[in-house]
Amino acid sequence: MRFKPWIPRAAFKISLGEQSRLFLVVTGLIGSAYARFVLKLCRIKLEGRERLIEEYRLSVADKSRFIIAYRHPGDADPHLVYHMLTNLLRSDAPATAPDGRPGAWYPSGTEVQLWASPLILWALKNAGIVPVRHGGVDRTVMDFLVQGVAHRKRPMAIAPEGQSTYHQNLLPELDPGTVRIAMLAAERLANEGTPLPVRIVPLSIDYRYGRTTTPTHLDRFIARLERRVARPGESLPARSGDREAIQARLMAIWERLVSATESAYARAWGIKSAPVGANLCERTLTLIDQSIARLEGFYGVVPAGNLKARILNIRAESLRRVFYEAGELAAFSSLEQGMANRGSAEAYFLDQVYLVAGLGQFLDPAYIDGESSFDRLVETAQNLFDYANRLEGMNMGHRPRPFLKDATLIVGKPIDVARGPGENRRQAADRLQRELEDGLKTLIRG
What we know:
Blueprint: E1 9-10, H1 21-37, E2 41-47, H2 49-60, E3 65-70, H3 77-88, E4 106-109, H4 112-115, H5 118-126, E5 129-132, H6 139-151, E6 156-158, H7 177-191, E7 198-208, H8 215-229, H9 243-269, H10 280-299, H11 307-320, E8 323-324, H12 334-360, H13 374-391, E9 405-411, E10 415-416, H14 425-441
Helix pairs in contact: 1-3, 6-7, 8-9, 8-13, 9-10, 9-13, 10-11, 10-12, 11-12, 12-13
């Protein structure tokens, strides 16, 4: 494959996430086809529709404000949520802006523009996206988001997981940003003399492959990955669509991927493998921990309190070497421009370590232990294929979408954002964070 190192560029200007009329027309015309042929979505259902419609009614009447907190188990989620809120709810929920849609506005990582196609870049600029940088607290951006939640009838839709987490039946630790934004918006409204209730609406996404994907299709997909990890002259496993056989084949691929990574990381950085007897999950996390530690040393980053935060901090440091403030690049001398080019290229290649860690932190063979569902086997096969891609240096734009699926969006019970009796701000935030986690967990279907 060809590598395309990053080049320095001006950072996206933070704007209020307005959807252009042209974009609305285009998505209205091709939205269903895009969902089917690009996102590989067949049937799309919405459960709890009335809860969502009621929140829109109250917001339009200036009786409350709300945030939609949606699950992010896959790469299709933001597109699906946009399609549902902009097009599928249009006949039921009131419009929140002159464009005539219920809609939402969406914080999204600035890094997407580094790998997105020209079509995706055009969509980002016209879909109501607010570019934010993961891995750090930007007070300007935070204030911008709080202002939008407090003053706009149109809700913010945000993924509190902070990134795609690749497993629909598992909920990892949530980032605190969603609750924090909601609390600050409620406080701002109260301080301005216009107190309004602020609520967080949990939204889960459930994907199912059983109706749309056959064991034979999954067997063929796994065989492609087996050919990639096989050494010259090595015989391939027997082909089978039997569930137990598929599970065993996935575990064998997993072992080969981890072993290859251990060898490559030892050669490149002298990273030691996990102790003998460690399981696949422990071996993977050892590689991630030590490789991220190398980058923390390179970038001069103080390790955060947990692995997820450490990984996101590395991504933030990579982006700092690519995005510059307006006017900065224009003022560079030829030498400074050349040094900036080198810094961006270095960040690009080091970011490949982030991409591997960003997926690897969520991989756990226990997910397909025992009598695993067909959906979990399909999910795992896609994740291992994606993991192999990232080990070779491919980005998230190469994530495979070989299987059609049905999607159900499930609206949970709204969470009132307010302090309880005797609670200080920290106590209220901790309680609301637990309520959001519990609210999303109750919507997960095994």
